[in-house]
Amino acid sequence: MSEPKLKLQSLNKWYGSKKNRMHALSDIDLELADNEFVSLVGASGCGKSTLLSIVAGLQGFDDGVLLTDGAPIVGPGLDRGVVFQSYTLLPWLTAQQNVEFALSAAGLTGAECRDVARHHIELVKLGRFADSFPSELSGGMKQRVAIARALSYRPKMLLMDEPFGALDALTRHQMQELLTQIWEEHRLTVLFVTHDVEEAVYLSDRIVAMSINPGRINATFHVGLARPRHQDMIATPDFIALQKDVLAAIRAGSQQDDGH
User: Fold this and answer.
1) Per-residue confidence at 19, pLDDT binned at 50, 70, 90?
2) Residue 51 to residues 116, 125, 161: CA-CA distances in angstroms?
3) In whole angstroms, what is the distance from residue 205 CA to residue 56 CA?
4) Which of 90, 117, 129, 202 is the most buried (most CB within 10 A)?
């Protein structure tokens, strides 16, 4: 058995003071294999985003084990690309320059930055808009730049927190198709947070449903749909049945409390 790309074991996270402590995450055990696409779903407040933020190294945790390739995660790193719902682009830089900025911070030379940034802008199908500023781009285009930036320094893992949550339905479907194309071509481990169960089924190899109060893993579903995925699958009986099972797990998890 090869080392998992990501391993969380008995991970706990608390918020607040001793008098008013909230148990945000309880005994999280989760492993992601190399090149696996795993989605986290669950009711608001179940700790999905907190868990992703901990894996990104942006938040600490109170006890447990957190490893990538067998080594402890102690902070942010270039081995993990992060994409949030908000695009966090620098408004005074063009699309290409936003990607170059991330690459220069990773230590590439000016020429390397330009070449790699251009390649990744093309990868997300924004070549014609490389010299456009964020104010000139639609929401979907901005998110493409954010994805290009996160992929540009070749992370081993991509962490995505509701990346398509602010987009309209058509743009969201286009972004899902783009993401699956990129993932199938370049293969990297993805941990993806979403409220959209259809999106989770469409994108994932595995879906992890979380319950609330405290946040814990409630159920795991293996997605047996063939790849490459396409939008016609959404209407198939297997897709619909899995979607119903995941929704049922989320509903069950949203009714749990400390007395469970």
Assistant:
1) confident
2) 30, 31, 10
3) 21
4) 117
Global pTM? 0.93
Share of the chain above pLDDT 90, in %: 81
Query: Residue 260: is its pLDDT beyond 60?
Result: no
CA–CA gap between residue 116 and residue 81 (Å, rounded): 15
Helices (H), the chain: 48-56, 95-105, 110-123, 139-152, 169-186, 197-203, 237-254
CATH at 164: 3.40.50.300
The dihedral formed by the CA atoms of 83, 173, 142 and 126, expressed in degrees to the nearest 10:
110
**150 and 163 part of one domain:** no
* Residue at a domain's end among 124, 139, 154: 154
| HSE toward the beta carbon, residue 173, CA cutoff 13 A | 8
Q: How far is the C-alpha of 96 from the C-alpha of 93, rounded, in Å?
A: 8
142 CB contacts (<8 Å, ≥6 apart)?
A: 87, 89, 134
Report which DSSP code applies to 92: T
Q: How many residues does the chain have?
A: 260
**Distance from the Cα of residue 84 to its chain's centroid:** 8
Handedness of CA 130, 132, 133, 138 (dihedral sign): negative
**Residue 149: is its pLDDT beyond 70?**
yes
* Domain with 190 in it: 1-79+158-260
In degrees, to the nearest 5, what angle opens at C-alpha 219 toward C-alphas 15 and 236? 130
| Cα 31 from chain centre | 15
| Identity of residue 13 | K
Can you say whether residue 161 is alpha, beta or left, with left for phi > 0 and alpha for psi between -120 and 50 degrees? beta
What was the pLDDT predicted at 83?
A: 94
